[in-house]
Amino acid sequence: AERLAACVRKLNAAAEKWHKAGGNWFKVFNALDSDGSGFISFDEFRQCIRGNYPGLKISPKEISQTEIQGVWKAMAGTEVFEVSVSRFMSFLRKAGQQLGLGMHKLTNYSKKARGLEEKVEELGPAPDRNPFELRTIVATFEQGLQAYYKGVGLHLPVGATAVLMAVAGSDDGIYARFFREIDADNSGRLTHREFMAALESRLGQCLRQDDARALWGLFDRDSSGEVTRQEINLGLYRLEIDSWPTAGDQLISDVISELNSALESRLKAGGNWYKVFNLVDKDGSGRLAFGEFKEMVRHCHFGLAVPPERVDDSDIKAFWKALDADASGDITVSEFMVFMRKRGVKHSMTRLTRYSMKKRGLLEGVRDYSAEIAAAPALQPKELQQVVLKLTLAIHQFLKAAMIPLGVGVDTEWHHLVRIMDADQSSRLNYAEFEQASRTVMGEPASISLNELRALWREIDRDNTGEATVQELQAAAYRLEVQCWPDLDKEQVAHFIEVLNAAAEKWHRAGGNWYKVFSACDEDGSGNMTYDEMMKVFRKSFPGLNISKTELSDEEMRGFWKLLDDDRSSVVEVAEFMRFMRKNATMQMHKLTTYAKEKRGLVEKALDLGPVPRRSRDELRAIAKSLDDELALFWAQQGVRLKASEFWEEFFKDADNNGNGRLNFQEFENHLRSKLKPRRRTLNTRHSLLDRASSPRASSPFAPPAMGGHRACMPAPSGAKTARASLPANTSAAATGAAAFVSPPPPGEVLVVRGVSHDDFHALWDTVDADKSGEVNVEEWRLGLYRLDLETYPSLNDNELQKVVETISYVAQQKLHGAGGNWYKVFRLVDLDGSGSIGPSELFDMLRRPLPCLDIKEEQISTAEMRGLWKALDADRSGVVSFTEFMVFMRRMDINKGKIFTPTAARGSVVHRASVNRRQAHRAESLAPAKAKLLAESLQHLRNNDSILISEWPSHVGQEWRGEVNEWHWPALARGILELRKEDITDAELHIAWSAWDRDGKGFLSFETMLERCAVPAAELPESPPKKPPGTSVPEKEEWLEDLLAEIG
Questions:
Q1: 153: how many CB neighbours lie within 10 A of its CB?
Q2: Contact, 522 vs 515, CB < 8 A?
Q3: Are 36 and 100 in contact (CB under 8 A)?
Q4: Closest by CA position to 240, among listed 333, 145, 168
Q5: How far is CA 423 from CA 330, 355, 369, 427, 473, in A?
Q6: How many C-beta neighbours within 10 Å does residue 81 have?
Q7: What is the DSSP string of 744-782?
Q8: Measuring CA to CA, which residue among 692, 759, 758, 756 is closest to residue 727?
Q9: Which phi-psi region, left, alpha or beta, contains residue 43 (left: φ > 0; alpha: ψ -120 to 50)?
Q10: CA 1003 to CA 889: how far, in whole Å?
Q11: Beta bridge mates, 190
């Protein structure tokens, strides 16, 4: 056990030496645990003990190998190979606690609770010594210490200087050095035994036993058996100042007078005792010791430079003794200020007010203004406002007669009123000064009585301080004026806000955006708005709101401001304005969501429309055609220039009163009735309308074929020509003929529009509102009408579609500089707005219009074939075809049958290089086995790490991973995600691999299919097309890559 304790002590000493971690066994463990595993083996334990820093570097002389093994055996036992941190900590804390090596020291309370408290030596009562005898003992003690330190070559001050140095916290005094030397354990405390042993070792028999005991009693006043350095210093300090003279009231008053005189002459700060204190408190501690106080009095640069002939040192000591009444050795700033203000009241910097002087009985024969003001009769706000008006006019007349210029602004006269009577330049007026000023400017006879002035003063001096500033005068005048302005009721407020919102929407497109309205009024950007700012913005022309007096009168403006400025502060902050407008305005920029409406119980129940009337698909198309025709006629009559695609969009904007972009059935029907003005029509009238729409004028080759007049329900190219709205240019035969199936409305039924009854519109609504939400937006409406019309388009089989595609490719080859087969170039030609998607009108315009379009005639591709092509392209019936959908469809058509036309083009053209590349691909029987194996292994590795594919796919392709790869994304997958370099596998070989996998020519493959087909041996791959005759030149690899880049770009 002794050897174990010795080893633990040496480990602790080494940890303290190298890591400053004595007793911190967790830190010691981390030093030993080199791999950070939380466990240490015997090899780690031994290596850390023996190794250099960060090891403990303990030599075999200090701890032998046998002792290391013994410590490990005691700690780990014989069952475990490694020791955990918890076991290490438990063992060493238990072993170290007995040696006192713990990092955590027990407090006295903990020691006492655990019975570990050392018993205090019973000393008995200290011998009785009077102050004179104690000073003699202290002098003997100092002489002995001085002799001792002189013997070792140190000369230290003694006497009062040494005491004052000690109490000030200096480490250079004789007592500070004595304490440091005898405090061997650095605990900051000395026991009686340590103190007596130090006296004997340093002073010998200089002090008798009972004198030493009396000296200890001077220090240990609480009889705790221990003393700190501060207790020794305070004991010596109190004994020292006890011998200083005691100051009387007269001496204190004289010293304060001398100090104040010096302060006034040197710093012009008489009575400013706080400034005096900070003058000498250089360390900013908020405390002064005697030495600092004396420096303040005597120092000629940093103090008051009071000479000894005016205040001698004994007076300073007596004054300090009175200041430090608790004999703590220093004084705080609060103690100093309280003492100086209490004893030096006549030198105080703070002046008494008239109120204070009156309360202290220092004023005699003075009018009691407070009683006079309280006795004045109360006046109504309107009467007080008249008093203010009279006073304002009198000030203006007075300034005009005195030829004093009056500045701009309503507050200028009050500044002048204060300047007239503010004799003490305090910028404040009491009632006497206010009354005198009013009499001065009004002259005699005065138009305002004293009682009126006193009643006005009560309104001004609301805080009852007896004084008023310019700001208080202005605020009172403002309050009285606004209080007399009219009050608006709820209807007037609603009307005001409605006009304001309309003006904001008209001039700034900011209807409901009250923050933007406030910012327009707050011209200086202060975040506050005054009445003048509001009036200026509301009345002036753009960028103001240009609201005339006929729309909102000045009285309404004043009433509105009175509501806004409810605290009568004369300014309205942005928070006040926003809070008021959001509370009172029905027009808001922020619309409640359906969820929020449900939570607040504001959701309107869906309108029960009853059973849906039965209408055939042809009848529905005829109904939609009638609505299109009537809407086109309406815009034409209004003289509005719109594209056909914008008819319904403008209709929705006009009908959407709540700004949510959606219409329910009732809103839609009511708006149709109000705008299109239905009248009773016979069936013949409806037929004539359809017949007129089907006239020869409608056969323009540039209109989208067979759209049933629904250009408004389809996306249109942004570059389409804008023309004056007129009747639809054409209609489909199916839609025209469908009119015959529409039954005439029952007699007396009110129509929605001409030719469309309520039931007709109900049936069409049910079809368009596919999600049965009870509401539709303009996109849903146009899409529903489009899908109805799309049903009339013929469905072509693959052979018919291939014929149409080949014809388009042939014409593109002839008219577009050899672009046959280059579907990317064809798509760019169709996609006029560069949106990445095309609509039916864009495709039809491209096919029918002359150059720069294809100008394909009816005999080449019929209208029915164009419709069938579009129907096949728009498989999801979305109304648009994306770039990917277009390319995949066209490539599938090419691959399924091949081209019927092989253009002959100049060498180097896109078509020529593409054909060369195809021949090169056809000549390749299959990939080399090494290349096929490389692709198979790369794809298999990606399958095993599918998280890489899911995370990397969007960044390389631009869309989420959906489990399939198309021909366009295959190079991005190979180069970007599989990281296959061109040195490993060329672009041509990637194309060969894809052609071998995509056997049916769909243009896309699932990832699982790719894995299955890339694993098929080369011998089992489908047979390649026969080779071309010898002599056909094959471009080099670099030329093929160059051609591919030219085709893509």
A1: 6
A2: no
A3: no
A4: 168
A5: 45, 18, 19, 9, 18
A6: 8
A7: PPPTTPPPSBTTB-HHHHHHHHHHH-TT--SEE-HHHHH
A8: 692
A9: alpha
A10: 8
A11: 227
Instruction: Please state the three-class secondary structure of 79-115 as a single string.
Output: CCCEEEHHHHHHHHHHHHHHHCCCCCCCCHHHHHHCC
- Please, what sign has the CA dihedral across residues 664, 665, 667, 672? positive
- Say how far apart CA 162 and CA 159 lie, in whole Å: 5
- What gap in Å lies between CA 306 and CA 262, rounded to an integer? 7
Question: Residue 543, preceding bond cis, omega within 30 degrees?
Answer: yes
- Work out the burial of residue 717: count CB atoms within 10 Å of its CB; fewer than 13 is exposed, 13-18 middle, 19 or more buried: buried
Backbone angles phi, psi at 496, to 5 degrees: -60, -50
Instruction: Give the residue among 971, 824, 977 at the shortest CA–CA distance from 891.
Output: 824
For tokens 């019309």, the residue is 789
β partners of residue 331:
288
CA angle 286/327/172 to nearest 5° reads 70
pTM here is 0.35
- Helix or strand run (H / E) with residue 528: strand 528-529
**What Rg value do the Cα atoms of the chain yield, rounded?**
52
Contact by Cβ (8 Å): 219, 231: yes
Beta strands in 236-333 (DSSP E): 287-289, 330-332
Query: Strand (E) positions, 2-80?
Result: 39-41
Structure tokens at 314: 């004994």
Report whether 801 contacts 815 (CB < 8 A). no
Tokens found for residue 202? 């340093």
Q: What is the pLDDT of residues 1003-1030, one digit of tens each?
A: 778 888 888 888 744 444 444 344 333 3
Q: What is the pLDDT of residues 223-281, one digit of tens each?
A: 778 888 788 888 888 888 888 888 888 888 888 888 888 888 777 777 787 877 887 77
Residue with token string 């709540």: 658
Tokens of 277: 């204190």
β-bridge partners, 776: 663
What is the greatest pairwise CA distance in the chain? 143
Dist CA 294 CA 134 (whole Å): 26
Q: Phi first, then psi: what are they for 737, rounded to 5°?
A: -70, -25
SS3 state of residue 840: helix
| Spatial separation of the C-alpha atoms in residues 23 and 868, rounded to whole Å | 89
- CA nearest to 534, candidates 482, 607, 494, 484: 482
pLDDT digits (tens, 9 = 90+) for 878-909: 888 887 888 888 877 776 655 433 444 455 55
Residue 851 tokens, joined: 């150059």
- Residue indicated by tokens 């000296």: 215
